Amino acid sequence: MNKNFGHITLKHLVIHNEKHIGLQVSAHKAIRTIIETQKIYQWNEKFEMYSAPNTKENLNLVFNSFKGIAWINGGPFL
Asked: For the whole prediction, is pTM greater than 0.90?
């Protein structure tokens, strides 16, 4: 694994009775930039992580957006 990569762990979240994709992220400038520029991600105070509605399109966006930038641990999400 490239030491310059960031790390993202995906989590199942339920926010206001709706399924969300939770993103636990490492402190990595490129990851933060992507999250801040894509409007689907919202900071959640309760879970202390970013989240997006759990849709197939958003899950694909997560993997495509961070390809080559972050190692994504999707195990807990599967």
From this structure: no
Higher pLDDT, 12 or 26: 12
Q: What is the pLDDT of residues 40-78, one digit of tens each?
A: 999 999 999 999 999 999 999 999 999 999 999 988 766
How many residues in total does the chain contain? 78
What the chain holds in terms of domains, given with CATH numbers, is: 6-77 (3.40.1170)
Show the 3-state SS of 8-60: EEEEEEEECCEEEEEEEECCCHHHHHHHHHCCCCEEECCCCEEEEECCHHHHH
Three-state DSSP class for residue 3: coil
* Dihedrals phi, psi of 22, to nearest 5 degrees: -90, 140
